[in-house]
Amino acid sequence: GENVEQHPSTLSVQEGDSAVIKCTYSDSASNYFPWYKQELGKRPQLIIDIRSNVGEKKDQRIAVTLNKTAKHFSLHITETQPEDSAVYFCAASMVGGNTPLVFGKGTRLSVIA
Amino acid sequence: DAGVIQSPRHEVTEMGQEVTLRCKPISGHNSLFWYRQTMMRGLELLIYFNNNVPIDDSGMPEDRFSAKMPNASFSTLKIQPSEPRDSAVYFCASSSRFGLAGSGRVNEQFFGPGTRLTVL
Question: What distance in Å separates the CA atoms of residue B46 and residue B61, rounded to the nearest whole number?
Fold first, then answer.
């Protein structure tokens, strides 16, 4: 089955700097890669996703890149703000079948003001 | 839309007791997922349903766990008997293969607020 590895497990950045979180996956059949943000005591919420027919997607300060050949994808947050502090999870699954998500172990991001 | 609804939000019980967690998916969604979150294992799938039919329950830890979806608007996850190692946050999520109109987000999974279970 699918296996998703995520690095780093913790990340501290100064406010205004960029943060990058990387994930790798094992199943070449996976073609849907969402990123979820989870604040303390809250539910995971989708912040951005990418499908395998594109290599990059951007939404304001957040961008995701995908390299299908290497089976890795990354989340980039620019101009970080204290409210970006949270745990971020990458995941992989297949589109079109309402299949479950396989999550990475999460990255705890701390943005220091 | 109220989103995915879960109850109870917190449950504290003693080892050996039966625990029932409840979930109401978003209206119109045809897939429902039960995930468990712990510090050690992260977010892991327990079971999921498509059109009320269980598709994959290989993530259910053992026979003490069971899940049902009697109709499109309700699902339960039952643990009997409960053990301290079952302590975790249990999330229910739902999705639609057609996505929200205009959102382009087919298969986006929406999570409920979770049930924090503590087994003493």
Answer: 8
HSE, side-chain direction, 13 A CA sphere, residue B78:
11
Between these two residues, A78 and B28, which has the higher pLDDT value?
A78
pLDDT digits (tens, 9 = 90+) for A95-104: 765 789 999 9
Tokens, residue B6? 């879960």
CB-closest option in A43, A104, A106 to B111: A43
Q: Average pLDDT in the A64-78 region? A: 96
Tokens, residue A36 = 């979820």
The full 3-state SS of B45-79, as one line of letters, equals EEEEEECCEEEECCCCCCCCEEEEEEECCEEEEEE
Residue B45 is nearest to which of A44, A49, A100, comparing CB atoms? A100
Residue B84, classed as helix, strand or coil, is: helix
Residue-averaged pLDDT of chain A: 94
- CA-to-CA distance for A76 and A19, rounded, in angstroms? 6
pLDDT(B71) > 50: yes
Cβ–Cβ of B91/A44 closer than 8 Å?
yes
Q: A102 forms bridges with which residues in the sheet?
A: A92
